């Protein structure tokens, strides 16, 4: 059954195109009319193609400009970020340096305060509590004792 259906299909394919060609007889006038219609369609299509080419060139030009501007903006942004990072680093270093300076000045001021207080305490002590005062007192005792002894012996 498969072989017979295949034979029928082959015979019908051979016979049908012969019948279609005999039924389609076109006149020269119809062919000329169809050809002029094709020429008009071809002219309209080539105008559209030319306008599309022009639009494509303009689009490519705009795309290249946009890309150039975008690249320029990206480069500027990277430069700004780099500059801001440098400024941030310098400000951090400056802050650290100022912090160390403040701590150093604080230590120096504390040292000056201690020395000033020590000097004030020295100056406000009574004379007999200072080393120079005690030294003078004992020298006075020895010199006075020596003079007293000298007068006692001489007398």
Q: The biggest beta sheet, please?
A: none
Q: Treating each run of at least 4 consecutive H or I residues as one helix, how many helices?
A: 3
Low-confidence sequence ranges: none
Structural class by helix and strand composition: mainly alpha
Mean pLDDT: 85
> From the alpha-carbon coordinates, what is the Rg to the nearest angstrom?
59 Å
Map the helices and strands:
Elements (H helix, E strand, L loop, with lengths): L1 H22 L4 H97 L6 H24 L1
Fold and architecture overview:
The chain is mainly alpha-helical and 155 residues long. It is built from three helices and no strands. The radius of gyration is 59 Å and the shape is rod-shaped. It starts with a helix and ends with a helix. The longest helix has 97 residues, at 28-124.
In short:
This protein is mainly alpha-helical.
Keyphrases for this structure?
single chain, 155 residues, mainly alpha, rod-shaped
